[in-house]
Amino acid sequence: xxxxxxxxxxxxxxxxxxxxxxxxxxxxxxxxxxxxxxxxxxxxxxxxxxxxxxxxxxxxxxxxxxxxxxxxxxxxxxxxxxxxxxxxxxxxxxxxxxxxxxxxxxxxxxxxxxxxxxxxxxxxxxxxxxxxxxxxxxxxxxxxxxxxxxxxxxxxxxxxxxxxxxxxxxxxxxxxxxxxxxxxxxxxxxxxxxxxxxxxxxxxxxxxxxxxxxxxxxxxxxxxxxxxxxxxxxxxxxxxxxxxxxxxxxxxxxxxxxxxxxxxxxxxxxxxxxxxxxxxxxxxxxxxxxxxxxxxxxxxx
Length: 301
Fold this sequence. Notes:
Layout: H1 2-44, H2 62-73, E1 82-90, E2 93-102, E3 105-112, E4 118-125, H3 126-134, H4 144-155, H5 159-162, E5 166-175, E6 178-186, E7 191-197, E8 203-209, H6 214-228, H7 238-249, E9 257-266, E10 269-278, E11 281-288, E12 294-300
Antiparallel strand pairs: 1-2, 2-3, 3-4, 4-8, 5-6, 5-9, 6-7, 7-8, 9-10, 10-11, 11-12
């Protein structure tokens, strides 16, 4: 009886020692993983934090995300001066934010975390902005229409894709003291935003969002039309709105210089805001984006 009790105690002791050993090994393993992750993060100068409910081990990794961004930008990785990468979740998508600079150009990329595809990219030509801002000549070198053509040419879209372009904003503006044309348009595959110098015609900044497409715009406008109780199936185009404003003013496109033409929301109604000049006379026109009705019209001499 005594031997049986001794054997039972011995078995319990062995189990206890085994449990303690397993717990210690698991703790040591977790510490090693944490240290390895921290070392990798600190050695690369980047942060790669996990998102609750996901496993970062299934993602492509920081280095791969950077290489996808460098390749799309057409830059040599050795020429990159500073780079910051972060694993993130945005707009229903797991992605890597990759920000880097090459000489006087700043790049910001969003790379899909599992496939490496480019979701969005922004390029800011900092050196070119400085050069333009130093110029004393304030004369406008290009027209708004020419700026639109420059933006379209920069996209390298095919003729078929260019036919699907829908402009939503085209206006003269000012950014950090620099006179620019602010241009936005959509295709079936992406949203484009451009800032172009009115003095030189140089592209100073651009952004391409491959997640926001013409279909997304259609879905938004459909929702707004439904809430407004309209039976229309689509908005008139920006060019149609400009022609309506010109006809209302009794002018032709060759007579005027457009300053602003964009789709906006005013008191719950989607409208086109159109501004243009003829000599020293300024015209401002607000047009219902669904019906094409002129809501407001002003002339300032």
